[in-house]
Amino acid sequence: MSKHYRRSSQHGLLWVIIVIIGIGCGLAGGSTLPKSVQWWWAVIVVIVPMFVAIALCVSLTGRMKRRRVGNIQADLERDGFIMDPQPDAERKNAVLAPVADLQRRLELRNGSAGIEWVALHTRQPSAVCIFEHSYITGSGKTTQEHQHTVMAWLVPQMTMGGVSVFRPHWLQRRVLTQNTTMVKLGDEAFDKQWVVLGDEASAKQFFTSSMRLILADSPKGESWHLGTGWMACAFDGAMDTHNLALFRSRCAEIVAHSGLSVWT
Secondary structure of the chain: what % helix, strand, coil (to 5)? Predict the structure, then answer.
């Protein structure tokens, strides 16, 4: 079995520490002011360190993201991929178009515009791609970034109906099954861990007992998607170089077991 991969660090703790330091500096500065000071000057002394802390967080987060993506690019290009770390709208549209139904299945709310980077294999650029997608929900203090890492293949011999299987977190399970009917494969352990949606006959054809046994080792957040002429694996989160390599290895294991002849 492949080792579990996981999402890259979101640096939430770093944000908390820096913001707390900023608040502490502001309060400390405010406590030293004489009582006769103008109110607006007191506000500046207290507030400015907090804004500086937030600006520092944004800057550091952007720098760490660029470093992460740069390391991914170096690793993928050593393995025969060509990566575009800042694809234009035309490239983004071209990448998502063959697997456009993923936008609905994964709820990629901003479509191709949310693609952060894309990698195509040099020998089979039209057959396999990897991309990272993100979008923001909420506003103000309640914003949340949703990220997906996707590896997709064009498989001309794939003639199955649409099927998606998710290894969800507990809250995601409720969302997935809220307005649709789950497909049961008759495997109690698998049906408990996974949510299967779509064409029942195709699901039973592809997710055989041996395939279900391999998928039992999947991390939460992994999903597989089948459509006419394509298939894809997705994970809820962005990854660093190490975990992306484990993700690709995991995909290769599943694809090899499926018997399909595709690049991994």
Answer: 50, 20, 30
